[in-house]
Amino acid sequence: MTPIENDQYNIGHICTRLQCERGLGSKTALRWISAKQEKTDFSFQDLDRESSKFAQVLRSLGLRAGDIFFTFLPRMPEQFFCFLGALKLPVVCGTLFSNFGDEAIMDRLGDAKAKGLVTKKSLLKKIERIRTQLPFLEFIIVVDIDKHQSKDILSYPLLMRQASSDFIAPPTDPDTPSVLHYTSGSTGKPKGVLHAHRSVLHLNKTAREILNINGADIFWCTADQGWVTGTSYGIIGPWSLGATQLHYGGGYDAKCWFDLLQNEKVTLWYSAPTALRMLMREKVELFKDYDLKALRYIFSVGEPLNPEVIGWARTVLEKDIYDTWFQTETGGIMVSNRPGLPIKPGSMGIPVEGIEAVIMAENGEILGSNKLGGLCLKSGWPSMFKTYLNNQSAYDEKFRGHYYYTGDKAVRDTDGYYWFKGRSDDVINTAGHLVSPFEIESALLEIEEVAESGVIGAPDDLLFEKVVAFVSLHKQYSWTSELELKIRLHISNRVSSVATPQKIIRVDNIPKNKSGKIMRRVLKARYLGQDAGDLSTMED
């Protein structure tokens, strides 16, 4: 069933009001389970009412179509009400990972010229520390304060009590901007990946055909809404199909997770390889007595899935795991394993129907089977991003003729399966989160004792890649355990907790080329004990 009726592409409308019009108003849309195991069900009528009220709130505060608004929240029901309400208006909605530090938040809000933000009281202090550097930010809505603190720090409960639920999303063209996510680069500030409401077509299709979601399913995507998976398949895809979603407010806990899978009769589970590898480390006895008969399929996303994890799931859970691949820029699943397709453990799978993928050489030649090259996708799919916000040149550089260049290196075998072989840049994939070495290096240089810094990703059995930082100190300082702790805390507070280095190495100097660019490949080769290759461009 198409999610589009009467040429209305509005994602907020499709995920709420349209489902009510199709007779699903009383059906549970969201089963919310808090970290304390408190359970609350929200129907599609509830979802429509609360998101419509929030759309009215934003309109009353002066936001109009095309303005940019952000959520900066942990997992909680208000995340979904605000996200869908913003899209109904329709303003552009960005989402921020709640563990982001000051610098990461400022870079994103500042670049986007965000006019509004919704957050939680415990996170407000981060915004207040950088508020003077965000001249375009007109108001902050706080979900857990009862009264307005000032003219621009506002109470969500009070605003929502005053708002009418009588809101109908205006007719929304497919190319209308919708969701904004920031992706990390290896040599500069994060780039704002801007999507359009037409993306719902691809998210609906892949949720139905790849994830196998139907109206009877209880679907659980463990991704945070700060990341593209958490919005594409933790909000839009499943609700565009009228499915019930489970969302859990706690973190990783093997027993709790399996209690949820069993007791809530989850039928489809979408998680990350790091989480699955963590489960592998638990004692096998933990899983023996669980009844997972309701669980039809398990899917993974975010980083390559090890063959060992597939073997573990087959042995311990008696289930297959289907790996899926996409990027922030692609918006939705592009290459995937799926039920009915034989799994080749370690492979990304084959392209989704309607997606043309090729392996391309540096000179633009399309390569044949078993040749290593850049993974490229023929442009034009519905969830393809519109642009990098305020950075058209970077957007243009991502295309080779009619093909989008993903930056991933891969091989296609003779059966048409694709195999991930690495990145063509220095972006670090740690536990499914893409981390910019540049952001970490910049934060390190803010520390008084640090003279130079260089950051790489190194292979890790659990995280896929771990963050390794090399620091050179000013001559008057010495290395101490206190300094190491200071560095870790600073990176966590300025960038994010996931960017905190797993290993910090003191060096006398950081290798650079003659133009002053950090030679991360040299640092990586030294760390891994490999040949660093051509050093002719290295400064003396």
Q: What does this protein structure show overall?
A:
By secondary structure, the chain is an alpha/beta fold. Among the domains are: 7-256, Rossmann fold (3-Layer(aba) Sandwich), CATH 3.40.50; 428-528, ANL, C-terminal domain (GMP Synthetase, Chain A, domain 3), CATH 3.30.300.30. Helix content is 29%, strand content 24%. A nine-stranded mixed sheet has the order 2-1-11-10-12-13-14-15-16, sandwiched between helices. An eight-stranded mixed sheet has the order 7-6-5-3-4-8-9-19, sandwiched between helices. Strands 17, 18, 20, 21 and 22 form a five-stranded antiparallel sheet that branches. Helix 5 (102-112) packs across helix 6 (121-130). The longest helix has 17 residues, at 44-60. It is globular.
State the gist of this model.
The protein is of the alpha/beta class.
The helix/strand class is alpha/beta
Largest beta sheet: what is the strand line-up?
Answer: 2-1-11-10-12-13-14-15-16
Global geometry: globular
By CATH, the superfamily of the domain at 7-256 comes out as ANL, N-terminal domain
The CA-CA distance between the termini, in Å, is 64 Å
- Helical run tally: 16
Number of E strands? 27
**Radius of gyration over all CA atoms, rounded:** 23 Å
| Weakly predicted, low-confidence segments | none
For the record, the CATH class of the domain at 7-256 is: Alpha Beta
Question: Helical content, roughly?
Answer: 25-40%
The CATH architecture name of the domain at 7-256 reads 3-Layer(aba) Sandwich
Largest sheet: 9 strands, mixed
Mean pLDDT: 94
Kindly estimate the percentage of residues that lie in beta strands according to DSSP. Answer: 15-25%
Q: Examine the coordinates and then state which fold CATH places here, giving the name of the CATH topology of the domain at 7-256.
A: Rossmann fold
